[in-house]
Amino acid sequence: MEPIQYSFVIPCYNEEDNLPILIKRCQEILVRDDMEIILVDNGSTDRTQQVLAELLGPATKGLSSMKVGINQGYGFGIKAGLARCKGQFLGWTHADLQTDVKDFLKAIELIEANKNITNLYVKGRRYGRNPIDVIFTWAMSLFELMVLGVWIPDINAQPNLFTRTFYNNRTSWPDDFSLDLFVVYQAYKANQIIKIFPVYFGKRVSGIGHNDTLKDKFKFSWRATLFSFKLRKLIKNNR
Fold first, then answer.
1. What is the model's pLDDT at position 217?
2. How confident is the model at residue 214 (pLDDT cuts 50, 70, 90)?
3. Helix H segments across 114-178?
4. Cα separation of 222 and 239, whole Å?
5. For the chain, what percent of residues have pLDDT higher than 90?
6. Strand, helix or coil at 121?
7. Architecture field, domain 6-127+158-202
8. Are 90 and 82 in contact (CB under 8 A)?
């Protein structure tokens, strides 16, 4: 049996309706013995845990699940999953099916096409979105450039994939939705070779996302703003 090279985490919070399709798609892409996918029930209050138990069994090669008892944030669920990963490359995407889990295979192709690069960070960049979302994303990148001094395109795009060394050298990962900003910013500051590839961003199959309404977008932007200033303060204090 080949050692695991690629580990992917998918946090699931109240995703019971999306899980049958998500699990089927995960099974379809597990075509290699050196891949694993970990579905994290991130403190769900619906039937996510029951559906996972019904659909996943010991014969589901490369696909497993774990449970976080109480939801402590999006970032907390991802961190819990990453701690279980066995691979030399680790990453995550979302469970809402707006980005296809097949993008994991595209990320692997990029890594293997650049196999001599030891400090590689692979990230998606979304297309197919509505103009309002594109404007919010661009504005967020511009704001981070002014605050942190780094231009980061499409900060919250998925998937993200990085080396175990990069993972082991990072501390104080946030528990909330600022995790995406924190990690990709750390990649830029650590002089990782960042490879960005296009990923189609479709409509959510079922349920309501955390950032679907205009009000949610402003709330998310406000939280990102507060975290950005906190991150800048930490950077200044550690010089």
1. 60
2. low
3. 131-148, 164-168
4. 26
5. 64
6. strand
7. Alpha-Beta Complex (3.90)
8. yes
